[in-house]
């Protein structure tokens, strides 16, 4: 094998890592790349229900400006929000914030006010 062939072999292998990721819907990306970190499903791939796929896919739709999730309790709304954030972190990183009711409950229950460091935080 001459030096030209060696160089072409190296460039061919390097080109694969330089190519942009294949186009896929956010819900497909979630199911192909994420696993549950804990709980009874720990280590298993995330399988989304059909009602979860639509809001996750809508996050990249330029016509959609606002997504409202309304469902009964414990239907994985947090999972939908977190998986959407993971998709953006992997494909289009930017500043993000995620806030839930848990923080308010901690303030009201005294967990924040009972902590000397957190007591000084203005909320």
From TrEMBL:
Domain of life (superkingdom) = Bacteria
Q: Which residues form the signal peptide?
A: none
Quote the Gene3D superfamilies the UniProt record gives. P-loop containing nucleotide triphosphate hydrolases
Residue ranges of domain Phage terminase large subunit GpA ATPase in the record:
51-103
One Pfam family cited in the UniProt record for this chain: GpA_ATPase
Which GO MF terms are attached to this record?
Answer: ATP hydrolysis activity
Q: What is this protein called?
A: Phage terminase large subunit
Originating organism: Citrobacter koseri (Citrobacter diversus)
